[in-house]
Each structure stands twice: as C-alpha cells, then as structure tokens.
Amino acid sequence: MPTSRPIISDAPPMPATRPKILDRAPLSITFFVVLALVVLSQLYGALVLGPASALDLGADPGTSELVQSLFGVAYAIGFLVWGPAVDRYGATRCFLIGLTVLLAATVFVACAPSMSWLLGGRIVQGAAAASFAPSVFAYFGARLPTAVRLIAVTVLTSSFLAAAVLAQVLAQLVVLAGSWRWFFILSAITLTLGALHERGCSRGLKPPASSRLLSM
Asked: pLDDT digit string (tens) for 191-216?
C-alpha cells in the first residue's frame, strides 16, 4: 500500500499579523483623553466660572458655589445609574447618549438667561458626564490587550487629575479674554466633534451582536 510523503515547502513562514486594535490604540487613547479633559473641566472650571457667572447674571454671590457643588452631586449620583446601565445596555449606547445629553446641557448652560436656569443645566451636565468613565473603562478593559490596557488606563486616569489644573487655567483665560460663556461654548464644540467621531466609528465598525462594548 503506497504511503504518502509529507510535502515540504521552501516558502518562508508567514509573518505574524499585527492586531488591528493595536494600530488604532494610540488614536483611541488620544480621543478619550481629550474628551476626558473636556468632561472633567466642566467640574473644575466652575471654581472660576461660578463667581464670574453670578456677577454677570446679577445673582447672589453665594450661589456661585452651587455652580460646582450641584454638578458634583449629580455627577456622583450619576455613577450609581450609569455603571449598571453600561452592563445592561452596552457601552456604545450609554456613551453616545451620555455625550449627547452632556452636549445639549452644555449649550443650555452657555445660553442660560439666569442663575436658576444655569444651575438646572449644571445638574443635567453632572448626571450626563457620569456616563463617560464607566463606558470608556469598559472599552479599555475588554477591547485592549493587557499591556496596552495598563497604559491606556494610566493615561486616562492622569488626564482626570490634569483636568483639575488645566480647567481652572483655561477658565481664567476665558474670563479675562471675554465672557464665561465661551468656556462652555468651546466645550460644546469639542463634545460635538467627539460625538460625530464616535458615531462615525460605530457605523464603520459593527461588533458581534453579543458584544456590548464601545466600538472604535
């Protein structure tokens, strides 16, 4: 009975392909870092913008502290809602909903005719901003390789801390150059670009039906 001989090929072995997620990782991390600075700036920038807005709107100077505190309370409570929501409805949906609501609330705050309207917008801002961290960390934790994930989490966490300083510096420059409203206008423009970018990526990359992760 004839036996088969193994076929020996002289062709060189195929090189290992580089995962596409590694090619997109730097852009994705940069994208989220910029958004993180903008989102957290809405909290820390209020240290400067609160007194300026109260003076401009003719409100009691004591209400200027509420511009930051109401945002902070809504932000903290929002974590209790957005965390489970990301697990149940998916990070992509929660990220886009939160970013869209934050954008609308930021525009509303920039156009607020009185302090009461501004404070109401700040509450909505805080609740919507709380969606950012759970959604992004879900993406990092599930879509990035371990080595890249550690770098991404470190960079993103550092951007949260950097926002505390950068937001106040930018807010001071905006107030000195013009109106406090421009701080929120510039933030709204950046959030708009971020939302458009993420919507485009979500349409271009369709993950499996079972996946609830943020696609980029």
From this structure: 999 888 877 765 544 443 333 444 44
Say what the pLDDT of residue 69 is: 95
CB atoms within 10 A of CB 81: 14
The whole-angstrom separation of Cα 13 and Cα 118 is 64
* 146 vs 176: CA distance, rounded Å: 44
- Residue 6: other Cβ atoms inside 10 A: 5
Structure confidence at residue 8 as a pLDDT band (50, 70, 90): very low
What pLDDT, on a 0 to 100 scale, did the predictor assign at position 103? 96
CA–CA dist 26, 139 (Å, integer): 14
Residues whose CB falls within 8 Å of the CB of residue 46, separated by 6 or more in sequence, listed in order: 67, 68, 71, 122
Q: Which two tokens stand for residue 16?
A: 């290992």
151-154 long-range contacts (CB < 8 A, ≥24 apart) are 151/29, 152/25, 152/28, 152/29, 152/32
pTM across the whole model: 0.81
Closest CA to 186 of 37, 63, 28: 37
Tell me: pLDDT of 67 over 90.
yes
d(C-alpha 109, C-alpha 124), whole Å: 10
Helices and strands of the chain, counted as H and E runs: 8, 0
Beta carbons within 10 angstroms of residue 11's beta carbon: 5
Distance between CA atoms of 23 and 212, rounded to whole angstroms? 22
